[in-house]
Amino acid sequence: MSILDVLKQPAITLPDHYRNMSKEEMERRVIEIKDMLGEELFIPGHHYQKDEVIQFADAVGDSLQLAQVSAQNKKAKHIVFCGVHFMAETADILTSEDQMVILPDMRAGCSMADMANIHQTERAWEELQRLFGDTILPLTYVNSTAAIKAFVGRNGGATVTSSNAHNMVKWSFTQKERILFLPDQHLGRNTAHDLGIPLEDMAVWDPIQHTLEFEGPIDRVKVILWKGHCSVHENFTVKNIEDVRRTYPDMKIIVHPECRREVVALSDDNGSTKYIIDQIEQAAPGSSWAIGTEMNLVNRLIQRHKDKDIISLNPNMCPCLTMNRIDLPHLLWSLENIVDGSKVNQIQVNPDTSQEALLALDRMLMR
Ligand code: 13P
Ligand code: SF4
């Protein structure tokens, strides 16, 4: 279900009294409920979540790590997912029927995931099959709806995260001649480029115009990139890189591969959220870094590594607004709903979609 579909449903919103509660009171209640529910409750938290939420997470990780820990957890009856909608859907697909996945705020979507809907994808596939025949393997970034994952699963493809994109793209070329990479053109382009595929061999599928953007003989196309992007990572620009190079010539620049190709090309290093965290952890004291990724994470790295000089690559960067919808009041509300037995904000992927999406996720998790 896309976040637009979610928003069409009757909204159950945070009751007002949570807004008037002090932070200390909310934290005290969260701790009490966590103690009371013990292993029946599991709170995974994505690195881009706010500190007020992440302090209560039982596991903190990137999309791949959170998918893995959710799949491994057999004890929790309630999984309160502190991340965005597609991550909670993935957790629901990977857990058993008697485990309930809850997203503390249903408005926590992902603008990138919403850039590919299943109708556009099926129409695109028909056209691409007409143009290229049965030569394409679909791959989808986990930042996509369960319906897109199911489409990919039933067509022999797999999901991908930014941590394993290189391996997954390599694997897909052992299966078919070409790939269709959904929905993030930048992760697809950056990964394929790193693997030695020339930019001239990459086409872009525009789902709004329903056209393939490509210059040259069509049989050269190796990679078809869906025209989607992350509205957070697109805010890092070549100008930001030039400014940092001019002002801090010794500073290293590291960015997430959801940034545009030209930004990645001019930076010193790039990699997934986990890769960025590892590089900063391993860096020498006194080293200086400009980081191009989500702001909650950059701020946390600044706080954690006071012996290093860390800034955001874009000085005017904001956090991911949809990730930020999950806050302490929503977390507490979700936990109190569990205690009261009310099923609020449960994420339930329908069984048929779930089964096909699992094929795509399993092909990724087994590699
Ligand atoms: P990773 O957690 O895979 O690095 O992805 C970043 C992201 O944008 C999550 O929404
Ligand atoms: Fe989606 Fe970008 Fe936010 Fe990640 S950072 S949840 S890709 S909008």
Question: Could you explain the architecture of this structure?
Answer:
The chain has 367 residues and is α/β, with parallel strands linked by helices. The protein has 3 domains: 3-109 and 322-348, Rossmann fold, CATH 3.40.50; 113-230, 3-Layer(aba) Sandwich (Rossmann fold); 233-312, Rossmann fold (3-Layer(aba) Sandwich). 42% of the residues lie in helices and 16% in strands. The protein has a 6-stranded mixed sheet with strand order 7-6-8-11-9-10, sandwiched between helices. Strands 1-4-5-16 form a 4-stranded mixed sheet. Helix 4 (63-72) runs parallel beside helix 5 (85-94) and helix 7 packs across helix 15. The protein is globular, with a radius of gyration of 21 Å. It starts with a helix and ends with a helix. The mean pLDDT is 96. Residues 48, 84, 110-112, 143, 230-232, 294, 320, 322-323 line the site of iron/sulfur cluster.
CATH fold annotation of the largest domain = Rossmann fold
Q: How are the strands ordered across the major sheet?
A: 7-6-8-11-9-10
> What coarse outline follows from CA principal-axis ratios?
globular
Percent of residues in helices comes to 40-55%
Question: Structural class per helix/strand content?
Answer: alpha/beta
Unreliably modeled segments: none
